[in-house]
Amino acid sequence: MSWLTPDVLVPIVLAILKALVILLCAVLGGAILTVVERRLLGLWQDRYGPNRVGPFGSMQLIADMLKIFFKEDWVPHFADRKLFSLAPVIAFSSLLLSFMIIPVTPNWGVADMNIGILFFFAMAGVNVYAVLFAGYASANKYALLGAMRASAQTLSYEVFMGLSVMGCVALAGSFEMRDIVNAQEGFWFVIPQFFGFCTFLVAGVAVTHRHPFDQPEAEQELADGYHIEYSSMKFGLFFIGEYVGVVLISALIATLFFGGWHGPWLPGIVWFLLKTGLFVMLFVLLRASIPRPRYDRVMQFGWKFCLPLTLINLLVTGALILLNAPASS
Amino acid sequence: MTTDTALSNTSRAAGEHDPVVDELRSRFGAEAFTLQPTLTGMPVVWVAREQLLEVLQFLRSLARPYVMLYDLHGIDERLRVHREEQPPADFTVFYQLMSFDRNSDLMLKVALHEADLRLPTITGIFPNANWYEREVFDMFGIDFAGHPHLTRVLMPPTWNGHPLRKDYPARATEFDPYTLTMEGQDKEQEALRFDPESWGMQRHSEETDFMFLNLGPNHPSAHGVFRVVLQLDGEEVVDCVPDIGYHHRGAEKMAERQSWHSYIPYTDRIDYTGGVMNNFPYVMAVEKLAGITVTPRAQMIRVMMAEMFRINSHLLFLGTYLQDLGAMTPVFYTFSDRQKAYNVIEAVTGFRMHPAWFRIGGVAHDLPQGWDRLVREFIDWMNPRLDEYERAMMDNSLVRERTVDVAAFSTQNAFDWGVTGPNLRATGYQYDLRKARPYSGYEQFDFDVPVGTNGDAFDRGMMRLEEMRQSVRIIKQCLENMPGGDYKADHPLTTPPPREKMLKHIETLITHFLQVSWGPVLKPNESFQMIEATKGLNSYYLTSDGNTMSYRTRIRTPSYPHLQHIPSVMNGGFVPDLIAHLGSIDFVMADVDR
After folding, report:
1. What are the tens digits of pLDDT across the range B361-410?
2. 3 state SS of B499
3. Which of A59, A159, B14, B177 is 20 to 30 A distant from A205 in Cα terms?
4. Between chains, do A291 and B398 touch, taking CB under 8 Å as contact?
5. What are the NADH:ubiquinone oxidoreductase 30kDa subunit domain coordinates in residue numbering (chain B) (predicted)?
6. Average pLDDT over residues B444-471
7. Least CB-CB distance to B328: which of A148, A222, A287?
8. Cross-strand bridge partners of residue B76
9. What is B371-434 written as a DSSP string?
10. Contacts with B388 from chain A: Cβ below 8 Å
């Protein structure tokens, strides 16, 4: 064990600590968002929202957590127990794991993987299984319909979600997130990659099943869809998982298109949090302001509009890069 | 005393000179029909059972045809004392037909005898007879030969007895205590299981196995306890079967044991979003029986409050309709508007949802001091809000995408299924009872009747928005032209009599006492009043047997046929289209099940 010198140990411990802090922040961010969303919705809907527990409702989160912990953890007798319990775990962990690739500041971040953004796509792909398992294992017709919608929607939207960021990847010349942020020092990628940004935002909303792409849950139609049979902490995991997804997508948008930690005057971390927070609010505003399109229209929009748009965007980006590239022999 | 004065009003055989009676007599012979003089304002014609189908066919094919089966129900005649000028009968089934070209109604009655309670079904002529005949079967045990699915519609399938029969007890105390065993519970649950074969539905087609989905009775978009069973191919609704009765409270039966006066609060709870709008047809029908003419002030107060409730109900509609389309926010806005309306309603009536504020002969009290300021504030608030809703929501492309051409139906289809009110007008047919047959002084008001073009879910939404504007106009005219005078008619049957008089006048005090303890006694006759309620045509058909209570009260509500209509427009749509349609119908289950 002679290699266990302080020189080696300290960076490892530091890295673990940083990872833990980011993990905690992500989970807490998701949890706090459940309250923030309700307050923001209240603001936009001419009402108060939860403001009873603690000053300005700040303790609402604790009350909610206590309540959900003490709920009976009921598994319907007709459900497939194993899959039923597995689904919320996948839902919660897959998107949470993706936080790994996000560089928060120049020196903070869990892992700088060379596959970078591809890791997120992989995890988003795994996330579909959560919905699928939940819908199938619940043995409930509404859940089944929800799962059907969810898998079809997520699969179609992931197709162009991947393509929509390839412009950024091409511009930065790397899949690694840190490289992509560093490449945006001069100008943010939202300018050359505006269409990429638009389609990624749409796909991001769809992948996290947020309104108006909450087809799998569609309260008015499917009465909460795939998680209709879930209660207690199992439901809680789906619930927090969704908000973790919102934070993640917002952080990814900030990183990929809005220069991550880059910004004048303020420290990098503040810029990163500000940008992320802005997009989180956009998610909430979307929910407050628009109705839900019909499910088949959502699919049409994905395949017939977004996919061609991302393809053209990618082709044009590629062509421009080639044109500007120094002529090689 | 009270009876003497009640008897003084003249029995007017209204509608006796309706040309349709001559048309019928020239076709079927003068002997074929008995004409019953009533206060219903339409000819009431007794037809032999054997001739019923022929007569209905004839009326339907007349030059100006009777296109809509407006109502169909029964009366248990066995305990009725006063049956002058009526053929002998143990049970009566009545068919009320509506002609829009003539702007008049016609009631056919068929006499049945206890030993032989059978009638031919008329579903082949009027498709909406389906549920009505099921209800008559349910309530009276009358059999309709040839009916496609003659089962109970309001009571549970396991029920014993026929509730609207006179020998069926009305009070819970007349029954044994209710018990439910485990076996009983299993039996009830089993009885609710949907059996597609009994509805002529297939479980499989050549390519697919269908999924049968119970939407309701507890579902966020079912607007109450409404169940609709969907036959799904993927998300496509191949067929659907609406199931009602979960909100049945026996309002019609209760009318038979409440005094004419004390039944008013029950009417509030028929269309529970309509408030005093429900009192309106009831008290007007009672006033016809009593021969009371209401003062102009009372009339206008009634119109004003009814229109307040129309706005209130339409606001609820708009919020929930948009919420069903997935827009989360509008419902909060419409509810703050409803609160503004309630501020006025509360100040005037002292109550919010169910004021039970109309009285036989007027309204409960005069308008309070300062009512005009409250109403003006409300009007000033409402108009800009309505513009905002139109801009923010009805012009929204997603709302249009979800509703335009969804669940569209034609005017003819609406007639066939008894669809009335804004849903009928959305198909482009202008028929508003407030214009066509003005009541309570509606002829004095200047307002427009909005009509749609496509009869789709979008038009049905726009109808309500536009109607709210018109209601605001009417309320404004009430505000500017409110006549002075009494808020109650000076008539011996006004219930309760004006308090100012009662405190000084021993005769009125006695009347007051009798009317409040026993209830007013109304002369035997039949009367009828139809109004343009919040959701369509609502009417009360009252039968008095010269007693303090009604002998039979038939409440025809608009939501009932609107729900029966769903399968005829829905088949082939997607689940979200069904939700959009449910949202656009504007029904409440209390209005369906009564």
Report:
1. 889 988 999 899 999 999 999 989 999 888 888 888 888 888 888 888 88
2. helix
3. A59
4. yes
5. 45-173
6. 90
7. A287
8. B91
9. HHHHHHHHHHHHHHHHHHHIIIIIT-HHHHHHHTTSS---HHHHHHHT--THHHHTTT----HH
10. none
* CB-CB under 8 Å, A289 with B211: no
Residues B383 and B512 in one domain: yes
Can you read off the two tokens belonging to residue A205? Answer: 């909303």
Q: Which pair of structure tokens corresponds to residue A45?
A: 């809907």
DSSP state of B49: G
Distance CA B543, CA B286 (A): 10
Interface of A with B in 62-121 (CB under 8 A): none
| Residue B576 sits at the chain A interface (C-beta within 8 Å) | yes
Residue for token digits 């004006």? B498
Q: Which residues of B touch A288 (CB under 8 A)?
A: 328-329
**Are A141 and B213 inside 8 Å of each other by CB?**
yes
Cβ contact, residue pair B328, A45, below 8 Å: yes
Out of A44, A287, A295, name the one closest to residue B235 (CB). Answer: A295
Does A285 contact chain B (CB < 8 Å)? no
Task: Return the higher-pLDDT residue of B557 and B209.
Answer: B557
DSSP-assigned letter for residue B33: -
Least confident of A31-40, B327-336, B440-449, B549-558: A31-40
**Which CATH number characterizes residue B567's domain?**
1.10.645.10
CA-CA distance, B464 to B452, in Å (whole number)?
Answer: 11
CA distance A274 to chain B (A): 26
Contact by Cβ (8 Å): A7, B294: no
Residue B220 is nearest to which of A45, A223, A288, comparing CB atoms?
Answer: A223
Residue B213 contacts residue A141 (beta carbons within 8 Å): yes
Q: Which two tokens stand for residue A316?
A: 């044009």
Domain ranges for chain A: 74-324
In terms of residue numbers, what domain contains B470?
251-593
Does residue B160 belong to any structural domain of this protein? no
Size of interface A-B (CB pairs under 8 A): 77
- Sequence-separated (6 or more) residues with CB below 8 Å from residue B487: B295, B297, B298, B301, B362, B363, B365, B366, B367
To the nearest whole percent, how much of chain B has pLDDT over 70? 97
Q: Which of B104, B130, B145 is the last residue before a domain boundary?
A: B145
Tell me the mean pLDDT in the region B55-80.
90
Q: Choose among A96, A94, A90: nearest CA to A27.
A: A96
- Please check whether residue B208 touches A, CB under 8 A: no
Sign of CA dihedral B544, B547, B552, B555: positive
Pair (B423, B280) in one structural domain: yes
Rounded mean pLDDT of B542-569? Answer: 91
Longest dimension (CA), chain A: 71
**3-class DSSP state of B529:** strand
Token pair listed for B590:
């209390």
Q: What letter represents residue B341's amino acid?
A: A
Q: Residue B140's domain is classified under what CATH number? A: 3.30.460.80
Rounded CA-CA distance A8/B356 in Å is 83
Q: Which residues of A touch B327 (CB under 8 A)?
A: 290-292
Position B5 pLDDT exceeds 70: no
> Is the Cβ pair B576, A212 closer than 8 Å?
no
In a domain, B185, yes or no: no
